[in-house]
Every structure is written in C-alpha cells, then in structure tokens.
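Internal ticket #5521
Category: modeling
Description: The requester needs a full-assembly model to guide mutagenesis choices. All entity lines are attached below as received. Residue total reported by intake: 535.
Assigned to: D.W.
Attached entities:
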Amino acid sequence: MMERQAALSAITGLGMTEFTRDYHKPSWQLAVDAIGLAIKDAGLEHSDIDGLLLNKSPLAELADFPMEMQDYAGLSNLSLLNVVEAEGSSMVQTIQQATMAIQTGMATKVVCVFADTPLQGDTSAGEAFAVAMPMMGHLGIEIANGFYTPIAAYAMAAQRYLAVYDRTTDDLGAVAISNRRWAELNDLAKLRKPLTIEQYREAPFLIEPLRMLDCAYPVNGGIAVVVTGVEQAKESPQPPAYIYGMGQGHAGNINRRGHQPEIETGAKQAGEIAYKMAGINASDIDACQFYDAFSISTLINLELYGLCGAGQAGEFVRSGETSPGGKLPVNTGGGHLSGYYLQGATPVSEAVMQLRNQAGARQVSKLDHMLVTGYGGRMQFHAALIMGQQERVQ
Amino acid sequence: MKFAEQSVVWPEIKEVAKPFYEGMQQHKIMIQQCSNCSTHLPPAQLVCDHCGCDDLTWVEADGSGEIYTYVVYHRSFHPAFNDQVPYIVALVELKEGPRLMGQLKLKEGQIYKVGSTVVTGFHKIDKNNELLYFQLEDGDS
C-alpha cells in the first residue's frame, strides 16, 4: 500500500470569459478579463497576487501575449513571472510551476492564464488552423508534400493505431459520441445535439482516417486560475481543488525503426511520475479531463495513462464507461471535440468545476482522484496533474 | 502524372539538411549513419539519438521500404494541391530504419495498406526541384 500524498497546492480561483465563435477583442484583453474574474472568484485582491504564469497559444506571436501582461492586468507585486511555452501542455505546466514555486516559498498566490482568438472576423476555424506546421520532424518536406494542418499529424497517428491494433474508425467515433453525451449536459459546451454512430460514419473524411467530428471545436476566449498553498486555500470562498501529484513526459520525435512516436508517447512517463507522487495507482483514478484536440488522443491517453489495455480503449469507450453514468467519466464537459477548444485550459476549467461540485447536470459523484492532462505538438509533450476534493492531511 | 502549376512551397533548406535535398536532385535518398554505433538516422540530425555520438556521415539509402502509416487528404489546404485531391501522404520506413515522408502515387486499381512494400521515385515539382515520392513495388496490386 502506497502512502497517499497530502495536497501540494490547490486551485482556489477560476475565471472564464465568454467563449465565442465571433471576434470581440484581442487575446490579451480576454486574458485580463479572465485574470480579474479568477482573482475575484478566489476572494482575493489584485495586490494579493504575487505570481503570474502566462500560457501563450503556439499559434500566437509572443507580442500578442507578452510579459507586459502583468501591467495590463494591474499586477505590480510579483515575485514570479514567466511565459510558459510548452505547446498544448503549457496550461498544466503553469499549474505545476506555480505549485513548485509555492512549495519553495518563491510565491504564494499565483495566477495562471490562457487566452486565444483563433477566429478573427472572416477567418474560419479551418483557415485558422490550416497552417503548415513542421510537426513531425521531416525538415519542411512536409509542406512540399501538401502535408498541411495539425489534423494530418493526428491522422497519421490514428492510422498507425488502427493498423497496429486492427481497429476501425468506429473506435474514434465512440470517443466523439462519449464527448457529445457529456456536452448535452453542459451549458458551456458548443456542440450539444445528440450524435449517433450512424451520423458519424456518414460524415465525410477530412484527412482520412479523421473526420471533422474527430477534431476540436475552436472558440475565442480566456481562462485563468489562481493557485495557492493548502493553508491559504482554507480561506477561499470556493471549495479548493487540490493537487496531489504532477508529472511530465517528453519522449521525443524519433522517426526510425524501434520507435513509434505517433502512439507511444510521453503520456506513460507523465502518468507514472504523477501517480507515484500522489501515492496512487492508475486504478485509483475516478475521472479524467484529457486534452483531446483529436479523438485519437483520448484512445491513446486512456491506454498510456494505464486506464485500459493496449488497443482496448475503443471497446472501453463504446461500452459507455467514459460516458455519463460510466465507471470512468472522461472529458465531462464535452472536451475539446464538443465543448470548447481553449487548449490546455479546457480540461483544467472542467476539472475545477467538477471538483467544486458545481458541474450541474453533468456532476460526477465520486472524485477522490481526477487525472488532468495536457499535451502538445504531435503528442510528444505531456504534462499531468492528479487532483481531488480532499486536503488529505497526514 | 499531373502536377499543379501553382508553386508548391519549397522549404528554406538549412545547411545541415543540404545533402538530403541535393541528393534528391540526383535521384538519391540520402540518410545519416552514426560512426560510433552504426544506427541509421533520418535526415537531418546533429547527434545520434541512440548513443549520443555527434560524428554522423551521409550515406545513400536503398530507397525501398514499407508503409508505416499514411493519411488521405480529401480536401486541399493549399491551392497547389487543389487538383490532386484526394492524395495520399505516407510515412515510409526505409529498409535501413529511418522513416521518410512522401506522397504515395498509385496506378489504377492498386491496393495498399500499412505494411505494403514501396519503392522511391522522384518528380519535378517546379523548374528547379525534384521531390521524392513512393509507389508500390512492381507486382504488388
């Protein structure tokens, strides 16, 4: 029996702007709004905040999300300030850094913020992300071959997964349906009409084997959280969302025999480190909030975080285990696919609402241990948190 | 085979990757090999990921391999590819081990899957540049 770790820190404030498909203001203004909402939610004043960690979207320029955010947000008393750039794993990494700073005494009340505006006026979601990203380490030969959009890197992973485990795209569809069932219960979610496997199968391929229904639904918006120490959290007006364990895994981009970066990712390492720190096993996880920009990543994450056997995630999801009423609720707000795509801030925001028992119709009843993750790039950068509702004093 | 007149975006070639791109212009697939542990590496590395050695030499690959994974574009995201849709982009594991990306060009009626054997060809994508592609080995259909 492992010794369960007492909480390392807690999220005590959550600030969310409106999530929109039209463009109202730039991301730095959305960030300022989210920061203000989070500080108020935590029952704090701006002058109480001594740390600010900025999660810039990889699509944005540094000038769109600069260190000067501290001035825009009226924070002049900081002993911790950084722009964390670890692609889609950044938001979880900001919370990890905040926790380490709090543990060492470098800061006591840290705001972590993400905001993005991929949809700008006449730019469609498809256009916003239809960029040539040298994601797979092939020297720009990617763009010469017409290998455009991040979707393609995930389609490569999906095809490899389906071939290795002899599965069909119905496994991907099962993930889209599970997410949609949660979104039906979430007023914040953007895609809430019931989805059937027949509808999924009839949808055309975009980049085969992925369909539009396998891809994240982008919005403009900002999300911030306040991270504090465990003692400070007791003064919070909101129920604290505690953090017990943290891990990262970066398995590299090795494109040769003996390595399968598409489906053998750093998630395994991130999970093992986080579980060990929290003093738990994968079987202790009650619910997951995964970064799920594409359906395939949920299948792979369920397996690599030790929650399913290899190649078995599709059956697991199809059987209803990850859906409302299932034994392992996953992406309980609809995730990126049906909820809202604000990169790593999406799973974090849903985790906090659930751990506060403020998730309404979609509230999960048992939440001793929730796995909250982020990944970036082609799934080569991973960060994970183990969170829960109890302080667990030892 | 028909190729779009609108120019395909050709990458700005970094010094370290020049032997690979120059090789393609001579219809050769150039990869790297570690002088310490003999591991073959995909272009273009500075350090062997297996042993950490930084003495890597360029060698010519045989040019055959197996489809490791692939995608099929059912819509175009760049004008140069509008009249190619649907087109296949494959990752091929060369006989020597490294994986390379290229389009898979099929003849009428050919069937392919992960694991199919392919060989390399080259096509002119603009007046200055030749790019590798893959085709099924003769006899496969």
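Resolution: model delivered.
Comment from assignee: Chain B is about 5% helix and 35% strand.
Ticket closed.
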